[in-house]
Here is the input.
Amino acid sequence: MDWSCNHSFFGQSDYCSVKQKYSGREKVSSDKHYLCIAVSDGDNVQWLERNFMTDGHFGQRCRSNKGYKLNWTVAPSMGKLCPEVLQKIYSMANNDYFITGVSGIGYTNTMSYPYKYLSEYSALTEEAMKVSDLNYMCLLDNFALTSDEENVTKRLDEFAKYDRIGGGIWELDPDRYESGKGRVFWSSNGKPFVSVRLSMWHPSNDPDQTNDEWIKSYADKINSMPVCPDKIDGYTVLNVHPWTVNINQLNYFVSLLSENVEILFVKDFIEEIKKNVPHVNAVPEN
Here is the structure.
């Protein structure tokens, strides 16, 4: 990575203990539509090492003094590559929660990765998640490859078999991660992997084209979602694309949400689904 920091220096630290601030669960309301906002592209180690914490989105977030809950993807390999950098990010966090970038230890598509190597891949992922204090995943794939439910379950089981991995969210292409439309996929031991329902990723790929009207359209969609904690329709994963949506625009979006919407960390979001939603791969009605 030609823009990355000096790993021959950072990787030598034996004293750096990497730990997130948030560990326990918070009380969740029973009469809300549950929203999980996750910022993508955390697999990009060189971005995380550089302006992510300064002029980038996380730095902007820390300076904005907004208190809503926000989830970030980070590369679990950072726990060994550059633990000091990851701990610095964790120490700066204020109502922030971290999960793996896509898709675990490496940038892969879970459904097309050679299955004979998937067990070894998942073992490396779990080990890196332990070092980096991560418990939930963000996966990447193409929705067309999820039609074989038996194969989906078999592959998810390779991750879900570990106690540390509690489930996760799933970015499904080709529609800028929202092709899954909020569908939930279950492992055989009852851990949910919830697909992105909506993705704030401007279709132009030009941040200058992202305006308040477009941001408001997403708030309107979220506000119209049903309140039904016993169905997957009551839960929405919203992806935020950091290259076309800035933190001020995300702050504006959150300011438009109705009182019927509750924002959750991935941890609480996944655990509420695990507790309340039937463990079947049902297609959302909304």
Notes: The longest helix spans residues 115-131. Strands lie at 33-39, 70-74, 96-100, 137-142, 168-173, 184-186, 192-195, 198-200, 235-240, 261-263. The two ends are 42 Å apart (CA to CA). DSSP finds ten helices and ten strands in the chain.
